[in-house]
Structure formats: structure tokens, C-alpha cells
Amino acid sequence: MQQDELKTLFKKNNALLTGHFKLSSGLHSDTYFQSALILQYPKEAEFLAQELAKKLKENNITIDVVVSPAMGGVIIGYEMGRALGVRAIFTERVDGKVLFKRGFSLKESEKVLIIEDVITTGLSTKEVIEFIKLSGCKIVAVGSLVDRSAGKVDFGVPTFSLLSLEVKSYKEQECPMCKEGVVVIKPGSRK
Ligand SMILES: [Zn+2]
């Protein structure tokens, strides 16, 4: 599927909005992305996972298990597990630290795919990578629905995303839309 078609699909579900937004970080932005608004529809979630799985298959990447960080990555991680026919588990954050709960674990020989909904700075994904490495597993790829860094983040493994977005964000004092007097919208809670 082409980037334009994907954008249209996200927009149709109000998952991708353009305008003038105040993000939870306080920064102003011309784009707002809320993956939960498209992933609430199982049919769309399944379709997006299949599209992402195609990219892995095209690159002959085989995996044993999908790991995604909660909350944002859980639904798309699970659908990736379905698309690839493997199990899907998730990490959680406890006292600021990324770890497995609920009895989830990895075997040393397993090939891991990390799945996110959105990659922005890549910092939280890197924390998951560091945690997974403790298990002695091989991380074979990172995937996300949306890459807001437009491919600028380097995880040291092949990285795939469905939609690559160059999102402009500004401090309030420097925001060109504020200067033009455009009304700022504060969307609902983050991710
Ligand atoms: Zn502004």
C-alpha cells in the first residue's frame, strides 16, 4: 500500500490529524497521530499488521516472537503475532524500568521482532532493546506503524514502518501557527 493510501486510511479514522495542536509535551505541532483510533477496529488493525508483515517477508526476515511495549504497542504487536503466526508478548514499565510481568519470558535462541505503534525519538524503543538483550536473544528487526522521525532513528537492526512522517513541532514562543493566530487544539490524552 502506498504512503498516500495509508495516510487516507489513518485520516478516515481520525488517527491522523493535521492542523495546530498542543501536544502533551507542551510542544505545538502541525500533525497529531493517535494510533488507538484506527486500532480500535480489529479489521483495520489486522490489515495494518499484514501490510507490515509483508515488508518483513520481502526482506526474508524470520522471527520467533513479537515483543511490544505496553500500552501503545500491545494491539499492533498482537496483530503482528497473528500475521506472522508467532506468539506476541509485551513489556511493561515498573518504577520507570522496562520489564516483563505476567510470566512472560524469552528463550536465548529466540529471534525477536520489536513492534511499536509510533516511533518518535526512539528512546523508549531503545530501552526495550536493552532489556531484551539481557535475555541473550537476537533482535532481528524493529517495526512500527508510524515513524515520526522519518527514518532518522538508528536501532542497529533493520527497521520497518508503514508510514514515515516528518512531523514539525515547535516551542510555543516559536510556533509559526500561533504567530498567524491559528486556534490551537489540545487533543485527548497521549497514546
Ligand atoms: Zn502554536
How would you portray this structure in words?
The chain is of the alpha/beta class and 191 residues long. The chain has one domain: Rossmann fold (3-Layer(aba) Sandwich), CATH 3.40.50. It has six helices and nine strands, in the order H-E-E-H-H-E-H-E-E-E-H-E-E-E-H. The longest helix is centred in the N-terminal third of the chain and has 17 residues. It starts with a helix and ends in a 12-residue tail after the last helix. The mean pLDDT is 92.
Main traits of this protein?
six-stranded mixed beta sheet; 191 residues; 9 strands; 29% strand; binds zinc ion; alpha/beta
Write the layout of secondary structure elements.
Layout: H1 3-12, E1 16-22, E2 28-33, H2 36-39, H3 42-58, E3 65-69, H4 74-84, E4 87-94, E5 97-99, E6 111-119, H5 123-133, E7 138-147, E8 159-164, E9 169-170, H6 176-179
Helix pairs in contact: 3-4
This protein binds zinc ion (ZN).
What is the structure about, briefly put?
This protein is an alpha/beta fold and 191 residues long. Helix content is 30%, strand content 29%. It has helices at 3-12, 36-39, 42-58, 74-84, 123-133, 176-179; strands at residues 16-22, 28-33, 65-69, 87-94, 97-99, 111-119, 138-147, 159-164, 169-170.
